[in-house]
Amino acid sequence: MVEEAFYAEARLYDLMFPGGGASVEFYRAQAAGSGGRVLELGCGTGHKLIPIAADGSSCVGLDLSASMLAEARRKADEHGVVLEWVQGDMTAFDLGRTFDLVVIAANSLLHLLEADDLVSCLASVRRHLAPGGRLVLDVFNPSVRMLAEADGVRRNRESLSFTDPDLGRVRVEVAETYDALAQVTRGTWHLSTDTDPAVVVAPLELRSIFPQELPLLLELGGLRLVSRYGDWSGTPFDGASPLQLCVCEPR
User: Fold this and answer.
1) Residue 217 in contact with residue 118, Cβ under 8 Å?
2) CA Rg, the chain, in Å?
3) pTM score, two decimals?
4) Using one digit for the tens of pLDDT, what is the confidence trace for 25-55?
């Protein structure tokens, strides 16, 4: 998959996206009321799942990237937290058990570019939900204006730049174009320092899922949208909301 190179440097990824904050607290609260068995798809380095496991839930994290899972295991061991890590494809998986809560956080669902793959993933989630179980996910709310500005020009992302103990200050620049027919943003991420102009050069493709499209995809996967929020505080979703934070259940 195109994004494998993007996630190959898991330690740098964590410095660029340190996690924490309101999103983690939201998912911890969801897990606390779920019944105890939690599966996260696209779990990455465990930003959300390690705190959930530390709260006492029985957790499984599934991710395609061996590098990300290795870093997740290291961090879990460092914190003395026991949970299960599985390398696998969220498009279609069979873990042989059910869960009270399935989480797909931080736009992870958007790595599935084709509608058939999205439906296959959601159907797999449906099969893994215990009676009364829920799927909770978050994806960005597409901005037509921002998509139109994806013109292929390489631009600085100062808010994502970071300092690495070995490399020093690492700049992050991104060049993106938007394929309106496929609803896919195709980008190249450039991480550089004063001495190395190409610490990481990696492609990343993410699909857009528009607000009226999302309930239909869920329906095709055997799920229904119960509630949708526009931010981590639970504000009702509207057209100006930055994200679609969705609570779903089997239909």
Assistant:
1) yes
2) 18
3) 0.96
4) 999 999 998 878 999 999 999 999 999 999 9
